[in-house]
Amino acid sequence: MAHDVVIAGGGFAGANAARELERILPRQSARLILVNDVNFLLYTPLLPEAAAGTLEPRHVVTPLRDLLRRTYLRMGAVSGHDPAARTVTLTTHDGEVEELRYDQLLVAFGSVSRSLPVPGLDRHAIGFKSLADAIWLRNHIVETLEEANATEDPARRDALLSYVFVGGGYAGLEALAELQDFAADAIQRYPRARLHGMRWTLVEATSRVLPEIDAGLAEYACGELRGRGMDIRLDTTLDRVEIDRVELSTGEAIPARTVVWTAGVIAHPSLRSMRLPLDERGRVTVDDHLAVTGLDGVFAAGDGAAVPSPDGGLCPPTAQHAIRQARVAARNMAANLGVGRPRAFAYRSRGSFVNLGRWKAVASVPGGVTLSGFPAWWAARTYHVSQIPGPARRLRAVVDWTVGLPFRRDTAEVGSIGHPRPLGDELYERGGSHRPLG
């Protein structure tokens, strides 16, 4: 009789666990079911480049069906868990609810942007966690350039051409650097906006950026961004966000129509409904085998799991850790089914890369070696090409980068793609004489 293995979440942890299980489990020994809200895996480290137009957005996602050969993919969300009955509740996109039985369960929900009770933040700021966020932000920047070039009001133009990023971690610096690079190229097509100039500001609550890497590399990154005219505010927080300005803890108000919130992530809130042991930050508590504390046959990996690090403390929420955790969890789930032996998670970070745009980056690689500038940029590109799932996506990323070298970036908005207007609206806009039926 085949065993039921359910994987909740199709990000780096969930997708790689499914791939590993397909590889090590005999074909007829288990029924693999992966539940995810979308049918693709997003390669999040390249999200800033997708937003900035360096990469085609479709080329930073890989369809899960291209990665998985015999895993049964279910679209929806795991919205409940009964440990005693060993079932999870699946809610589909159509609102239908059903119970999935499991012999082994992997919880890999991932994370969401962390929010804080800053007045106006939820209404006037945008996160930077998904492909939708990236595409929206790219379109929004193009719209601000268009409006700034058209308006006769200097104050409005000032707010339109001011961009505030909050959070000095990996995501914040890479998003800031890539999008400023994109905007600096795009603004050449807008003479009035170019004459006025743009203002890019990074707000960081602590005394330094990039706390995860060497202090010297962090200083290099700050120097590089400041050299491009960006304003980096350390030991500063937001007090209030309004539609056309932000108020800082220093008492200063900055006119800005764009606020990007990248101040960290938290475990997915859906974990609270899963009847699992959670730590004070809402992450599932696991041992060094990725097994959930006190539950038989239940494992957790990725950003939503509090995984002990071999170096002490807990693993950071990075893609490289999620992938390795997934493989260990998959092997231990297979061991519970009688295939192979269990093993402990013993992965140590192999380095980190922070892309700063304009052929610049900072990197920390094994052996204590640090790189900056073009060598770091080349090392980052090489590493990411090696990690993108699937040879087709790797080739497409290389082609995008290569073809983009001699050309300016495309400034066309793509937000309306996939959201067609009713046919009647199009007829009226074009001056059609026929009224729509009904």
Question: Can you give a write-up of this model?
Answer:
This protein is an alpha/beta fold and 438 residues long. The chain has 2 domains: 3-37 and 76-113 and 265-336, FAD/NAD(P)-binding domain, CATH 3.50.50.60; 121-263 and 352-404, FAD/NAD(P)-binding domain. It is 33% helix and 24% strand. It is built from 13 helices and 25 strands. It has helices at 12-24, 47-52, 64-67, 121-124, 131-150, 154-160, 170-186, 191-196, 215-227, 319-336, 374-387, 391-404, 423-429; strands at 3-8, 30-36, 40-42, 61-63, 72-75, 77-82, 87-91, 97-101, 104-107, 111-113, 126-127, 162-166, 199-203, 231-233, 238-242, 245-248, 253-255, 258-261, 265-267, 284-285, 298-300, 305-306, 352-357, 360-365, 369-373. The strands form 8 sheets. It has a 5-stranded parallel beta sheet with strand order 5-2-1-9-21, with helices on one face. Helix 1 packs parallel to helix 10. The protein is globular, with a radius of gyration of 23 Å. It starts with a strand and ends in a 9-residue tail after the last helix.
